[in-house]
Specification:
The longest helix is centred in the N-terminal third of the chain and has 14 residues. The chain is built from nine helices and nine strands. Helices cover 38% and strands 13% of the residues. It starts with a strand and ends with a helix. It is α/β, with parallel strands linked by helices and 245 residues long. The chain has a three-stranded antiparallel sheet. Strands 1-2 form a two-stranded parallel ribbon. β5 and β6 form a beta hairpin. α6 crosses α7.
């Protein structure tokens, strides 16, 4: 088991959260292999990966705001966020350079169609759903970096998984769709293909998905209420059974 602090979003991530993760995990008696990888200490790794994508000609700047995307894409399908309609992909090179030179904020998106044209058909393997074809129709041209941050969730975890020697990615089923862009990035960057295991989400006694916003169920709050490590682990096992894990 590896421990990684995914803190590329510098506006939301705080040092006290990292401290709490390390302290609470140690208090539970959970151990991990190797050093803790802190993403914000490895910007050069992500810049190198981004440079490789740029050299392949599959990255372009997007100046659209979230409102622009919402208005252009129309109503989202199936409760998902609206798919980016490719507005800025149609901008010419001069227009892009002028906007960047003006200091306008932008994101860097991956041209999914062009990228798949380079890699050919791809699949990924999940222990629950089996071998699945990679499709980007529900994702579109996804973000791989921003003006102020040289990476994104998808790009950084793909790079980290390879550098850390990950052999199995285990996570909640709500991230199953993330396999599609991440498998594409693995192929483009010539990184190892990884197997996945997506489990059902843990729910509370009312059947509601547990979330970080439910402060009363944090390990820290349970510790302060007098719970012991074995109490927390026992409760986690009970809820896992209720959730079908």
């Amino acid at each position: 088991m590896l421990l990684r602090i995914e803190d590329i979003d510098q506006t939301r991530c705080r040092e006290e959260y990292v401290t709490a993760i390390l302290e609470d995990t140690a208090w539970l008696g959970v151990t991990w292999d190797g050093d803790v990888r802190i993403q914000s200490e490895h910007w050069d790794d992500y810049r190198a990966a981004l440079a490789r994508l740029s050299a392949l000609g599959v990255v372009y700047p997007c100046f659209c705001t979230r409102r622009d995307i919402q208005e252009a894409a129309g109503a989202p399908q199936g409760g998902r966020a609206p798919i980016y309609p490719g507005t800025c992909k149609r901008l010419d090179v001069v227009d892009r350079e002028l906007r960047i030179g003006s200091g306008a904020p932008y994101a860097l998106r991956l041209d999914a169609e062009r990228a798949l044209g380079l890699t050919g058909p791809l699949t990924f393997l999940d222990e629950q759903s089996g071998r699945t074809p990679v499709k980007l129709t529900h994702v579109g041209d996804f973000v791989v970096a921003r003006k102020e941050t040289p990476t994104s969730y998808h790009l950084s975890v793909v790079v980290d998984d390879a550098l850390q020697g990950v052999t199995l990615v285990t996570r909640g089923v709500d991230l199953l769709d993330a396999c599609h862009p991440q498998r594409l990035l693995q192929a483009l960057l010539e990184l190892p293909e990884l197997p996945y295991a997506h489990h059902a989400l843990v729910k509370d006694d009312e059947g509601k998905r547990m979330a970080k916003r439910d402060a009363s169920t944090t390990i820290r709050s349970l510790r302060e209420a007098g719970w012991r490590p074995q109490d927390v682990l026992g409760e986690a096992e009970r809820r896992a059974r209720l959730s079908g894990l």
